[in-house]
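step 4 of 6: structure.
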Amino acid sequence: MKLSRKTRETLAFWGFVGPFLIGLAVFAYLPIGWSVYLSFFDARNTVTPSVFVGLDNYAHMLTDGPFLASLGTFSVFALAIVPLTFVLSLALAAGVHQLRFARAFFRSVFFLPFACSYVVASLIWKTSLFSGVRYGLANTVLGLFGADPVAWTGTVDPPLYWIVLVTARLWLQLGFYMILFLAALQRIPGRLYEAAWLDGAKPAWQVFRHITLPQLRATSVAVLLLNLINAYQAFDEFYNIMGDSRGYPPFARPPLVYLYYTSLGSGGQDLGRGSAGAVLLALLIALVTLAQGRLFRFDRGALS
Amino acid sequence: MNSAVVKAALRWTALIVAAVLFLLPFYLLLRNGLASRAEITAPDWTLWPRQVHWENFSRLFSLEDVPFARSLLNSAVVATLQTLGLLVICSLAGYGFARIPYRHSKTVFYAVLATLMIPTSVTFVPSFVVVSTLGWLSDLRGLVIPGLFSAFSVFLFRQYFLDFPRELEEAGRVDGLTRWGVFRRIVVPNSRGFFAAIAVISVIGSWNAFLWPLIIAQSPDSWTVQVALSGLLTSQNPQLNLLFLAAAVSILPIVLLFAFLQRYLVRGVTESGLKG
């Protein structure tokens, strides 16, 4: 039988795309559907729920102190990490970009932590840099000035644990965002700067503000969005820095850590409520992403 | 003139201070990993251990409660299999979306993109349910297979293949090659650099993954290196020097890979970050 050209192309398409789509169905669509389904059931210590509870799980999560607190924790974390990462990675990129030699060296040094895992960073931060005992590096430095040792991860008021969590993530991710900014800086046409100089040599800050920053617009949006989504998914460093053999303290639980302990952690194992929380979070991030899309499109219209 | 010199000096100072801060954690890994247990907790801080304890290596690899060597092997196997599988499956799909004319191609592609909107971490509970239903807990399949189907990688491959020179492919068609033949004999060999970029990113991501292996690898024999490290870290009374040495050993393969393939990695990050 001779197949028509169109049929052959259709078959080829499914041949190429099919294996991936089957996997996506099993490991993405099915879990999403299952999550929504489970969220309407009482599913404690089981994955085959029997008791339909309607919106009870949702009601519980929304009136549940720890879940709402985890959203608050995420907000504080995002408010610190997103602007800091933006400014510092741009500063590193600008610094490296202007170098005439040793550029590759500095780029590599700043990018190197990207090769490390959050677990490794957590170990260094928790047990060496910001260890609460006297020999910790931060406390050793403080000791040189005659200050007493500080319990970095255990101090809630003021919340010193944020210093540990935020600096660990900065070290790990600054290099990644620096690379994005470096690539964008290299693409800015030199004639733009020449034109600025011809218009009268302005101070460096003005050139940066009126030429460099607008040219970095697309990259800046990408950096902010990626950074926000990554902050929202925070788990590894929180789990390893704040948790220990006795469990996890009641403060500084971002959503993912809270959901992990609710649905899979020892004791809880409440998959119904965990799923309801997951669905709520998915809705929340979809909303934020859409709002952000709106915001940036509006902004673009205003600029052009 | 003078102010230019001052500015340059300030810039160099800032960069050097930043570089020292960025390298400090790596130094701590080595310093603490080669020290004795008492020296790490000693109140007087020394820059380098008074005596280097090489025997920490053999002690690390003979720990009883944490099979460290086994965890390294598991991570290597998972990273290798996952990367190879991902390259095959996602490059095929990306090529299909980019090049093969089909009426509903756009619709299917949007359905794939939609899964990117839902963060993988939010679906970890039901994904765990799926994997445990399949009986893949504490099993290589549970660690490797769910990671093969990356919508983001498909997206990157599609963007890349859209820019692939059509003339090369047409020459192949004229020579009588099928779609598959064109892909295998012309497209893939001419895209080695891009495949390498995706491979490096995949290996690093796979090696450093924590949440998924933490959930799936429940028996110590199936632990990946990150789960083993975390187990050492959160256990009661950890042996800090061995823990630091373990961390140093765990980053060594990735740092080496990084050193040799940084060129590809930078390109991959640049392309993925800007188009994503």
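step 5 of 6: annotate
 - Strands of chain A lie at 41-42, 51-52.
 - Residues 298-304 of chain A have pLDDT under 50 and may be disordered.
step 6 of 6: archive
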